[in-house]
């Protein structure tokens, strides 16, 4: 990525037009513009759309070197549209006037657009730099947990991706093709409406780790509950009915506000627990390893639910042929059924981990005694078959609770999850599709999951996994990835293994 582009000159089409709609923003506009001028990406222009301000917004923006244009009709979409019509950039980055962007903001956006011409828009989260501690906490909860979770649901249910109105970038030609913004919408719902039309032209990318800063003034002025409800109501109204939601705004009693505030806290806590429970990347209940935290092109192959009479042996054959080692998370009862296959896993130089004795769905909610029994019985079965006492534990289905994490650590196990897994456990999943998804998600340090078994079902068909494994290894080798076992890395990465 070229971060030393020449500043645009006369007659030169810039890469980015940074458009800042502003109405009476004299208290915020300076910090916003200065953050843009501090970018390590220099090929941009700044356009401030003065939306009928009665203060010194336009004067301040002009003094800071921004190009100021005027839009007399009050309304955010209209101001965005006026900015679009004046922009000379190939890409347009829209910022609220109270936004402060990091130094590499434009560089990161440009990299995404430049890498994939199917990407038509990019958006990212923000955190509040003012407001009380409660508002700041809710902001972190929303953008670090709730919104990423919603993005996954968007993909699953194939609903349009969403750009966040406060900061997003879009290709100018895409806006031209869809006819720009809907001027009939004044504020709420305008970002959802434009998202629906943009998504028909290509992919909307959400950069979950690129945070900007914003003021929480709207939440402080209108109230947390009312603002949140208004946003949610407009989202669903725009999604399903294609028009903003309109409802009366009665005064809320102090008692109702108090109840609503506690309800939000409870729901937020429930969401936080759900994230910790199901997400393989979550460490909110305690330390676990979901990636190797390596900049080198290395990946770790792991296999769950074995050993399996036929398919584990076929997988071992592929690993041996390719000169690759893996880590097999074994189910204790399956080990008792096929002890020789478990021995073959170890004798070929692969590692073994504990995947519980019977692979129960709700193991993480069991009592400490029941949980310990499951793990110890599996440990005994693995040791009797292989002579190895595993140091790694993978929770069945990846489900974790605070009690489970604490107990597993007390048993001197390291909890291993993953960051690259598909639905190869479904017999109808096609091998090429499995391999394609694994390869597309592979990154330096990825922990990849395949399934050589299916719980305690010894008749499960794993031909798709075997074929996908071969395709995956061949392709990743072409991309110069190396395959490493987990424990062999030891302290070179972000975890260590207990003796």
Strand-helix topology:
Layout: E1 16-22, H1 29-37, E2 44-50, H2 57-63, E3 67-70, H3 76-86, E4 91-95, H4 105-115, E5 119-123, E6 126-128, H5 133-156, E7 167-171, H6 172-178, H7 190-199, E8 203-206, E9 212-214, H8 217-222, H9 224-241, H10 254-278, E10 298-306, H11 311-322, E11 327-330, H12 332-337, H13 339-347, E12 351-354, H14 368-386, E13 392-393, H15 402-410, E14 414-415, E15 420-421, H16 431-441, E16 446-451, H17 463-478, E17 482-483
Parallel strand pairs: 1-2, 1-4, 2-3, 5-8, 6-9, 10-11, 10-16, 10-17, 11-12, 13-14, 15-16
Antiparallel strand pairs: 4-7, 5-7
Helix pairs in contact: 5-10, 11-17, 13-14, 14-15, 16-17
Word description of this protein:
The chain is built from 17 helices and 17 strands. The protein is α/β, with parallel strands linked by helices and 499 residues long. It has two domains: 16-217, Alpha-Beta Complex (Spore Coat Polysaccharide Biosynthesis Protein SpsA, Chain A); 298-492, Glycoside hydrolase/deacetylase (TIM Barrel, Alpha-Beta Barrel). Helix 11 (311-322) packs parallel to helix 17 and helix 14 (368-386) crosses helix 15. The chain starts with 15 loop residues before the first strand and ends in a 16-residue tail after the last strand. The relative contact order is 0.09.
- In percent, how helical is the residue content? 40-55%
Report the end-to-end length measured between terminal Cα atoms: 44 Å
Structural domain count: 2
Radius of gyration over C-alpha positions, nearest whole angstrom = 27 Å
CATH class of the largest domain: Alpha Beta
- Global shape: elongated
User: Could you give a short account of the major beta sheet?
Assistant: 7 strands, mixed
Tally of individual helices: 17
Query: Uncertain regions: pLDDT < 50 for 5+ in a row?
Result: 1-12, 489-499
CATH architecture of the largest domain: Alpha-Beta Complex
